[in-house]
Amino acid sequence: ITAAAEAWARGAAALPKPWKPQKPVLPVEGMRNVLITSALPYVNNVPHLGNIIGCVLSADTFARYCRLRNWNTLYVCGTDEYGTATETKAVEEGLTPQEICNKYNAIHADIYRWFDISFDYFGRTTTPHQTTIAQDIFQRLLARGFLLQDTVEQLRCENCQRFLADRFVEGTCPFCSYEEARGDQCDKCGKLINAVELKNPQCKLCRGVPVVKPTRHLFLDLPKLEERLEPWLEQSWATGDWTANARYITRSWIRDGLKPRCITRDLKWGTPVPLDGFRDKVFYVWFDAPIGYLSITANYTDQWERWWKNPQQ
């Protein structure tokens, strides 16, 4: 309090001059360098006030605080554009997925600009950098033996000649008999559903009756990482600032044993899988989308690794 009162008494003239970073903003030796990201908003809607409060406002406030502290600050964000929700919206509006992304990316950017959100760069995930970095991470996982293959049963529409993602299937809920349940969840009873469990399933695109067929997919072999992950978590919990909720969820996953996680989908709209036997598939959006933070930074500057692979600064 005394220090604050003395600083106030000295007046604004005594304050250090505001830091003016070079463009593009890059880490500076000897300074505090801060990289800030907002959760990437999904591209298939018009953002409203709740989205802004829940997604970008807290990061924007923190970015402004950091700049006032004269910390060297980079704040990036962008639209998350791959996945079945984009394909569904494209069908609804009679556009291609790329046209949907172009349309709603511009709407998002305009709205955040109107609210004066202080991004240094607002990008998107449907870029060549996204493909390059996601495929590189995949190849590294493959080379280190952290991927496995398995066969799963999925609904396939023979009329549309495609395996149906969860959002492209409707049917009767096996738990409460609600007749408009989706392939992933029943909106009436709230229970999660495996699409092949639906009674009287229908393809949302052509209203045909799909059949159950086997398909090969790639999985992240998470059980192989458990032995290395547990000591890292113990150290991170001891030295980091984890919320109680984050600790509880992570501990429960470790306690129950990690399971292999499917990272591919039988879709057209997504980052292509660069492996023979799987080239007709794309990466699952939850494997692909978090890499968007890296690729958006890479679209901002070709020296993006100085932010993402530079713990010394």
Automatic annotation (TrEMBL):
<dbReference type="InterPro" id="IPR029038">
    <property type="entry name" value="MetRS_Zn"/>
</dbReference>
<dbReference type="GO" id="GO:0004825">
    <property type="term" value="F:methionine-tRNA ligase activity"/>
</dbReference>
<feature type="domain" description="Methionyl/Leucyl tRNA synthetase">
    <location>
        <begin position="34"/>
        <end position="311"/>
    </location>
</feature>
<dbReference type="InterPro" id="IPR014758">
    <property type="entry name" value="Met-tRNA_synth"/>
</dbReference>
<dbReference type="GO" id="GO:0005524">
    <property type="term" value="F:ATP binding"/>
</dbReference>
<comment type="similarity">
    <text>Belongs to the class-I aminoacyl-tRNA synthetase family.</text>
</comment>
<keyword id="KW-0547">Nucleotide-binding</keyword>
<keyword id="KW-0436">Ligase</keyword>
<protein>
    <recommendedName>
        <fullName>Methionine--tRNA ligase, cytoplasmic</fullName>
    </recommendedName>
</protein>
<dbReference type="GO" id="GO:0017101">
    <property type="term" value="C:aminoacyl-tRNA synthetase multienzyme complex"/>
</dbReference>
<dbReference type="InterPro" id="IPR015413">
    <property type="entry name" value="Methionyl/Leucyl_tRNA_Synth"/>
</dbReference>
<keyword id="KW-0648">Protein biosynthesis</keyword>
<dbReference type="Pfam" id="PF09334">
    <property type="entry name" value="tRNA-synt_1g"/>
</dbReference>
<dbReference type="InterPro" id="IPR033911">
    <property type="entry name" value="MetRS_core"/>
</dbReference>
<keyword id="KW-0030">Aminoacyl-tRNA synthetase</keyword>
<dbReference type="GO" id="GO:0005829">
    <property type="term" value="C:cytosol"/>
</dbReference>
<dbReference type="GO" id="GO:0006431">
    <property type="term" value="P:methionyl-tRNA aminoacylation"/>
</dbReference>
<keyword id="KW-0067">ATP-binding</keyword>
<dbReference type="InterPro" id="IPR001412">
    <property type="entry name" value="aa-tRNA-synth_I_CS"/>
</dbReference>
<dbReference type="InterPro" id="IPR014729">
    <property type="entry name" value="Rossmann-like_a/b/a_fold"/>
</dbReference>
<dbReference type="InterPro" id="IPR023458">
    <property type="entry name" value="Met-tRNA_ligase_1"/>
</dbReference>
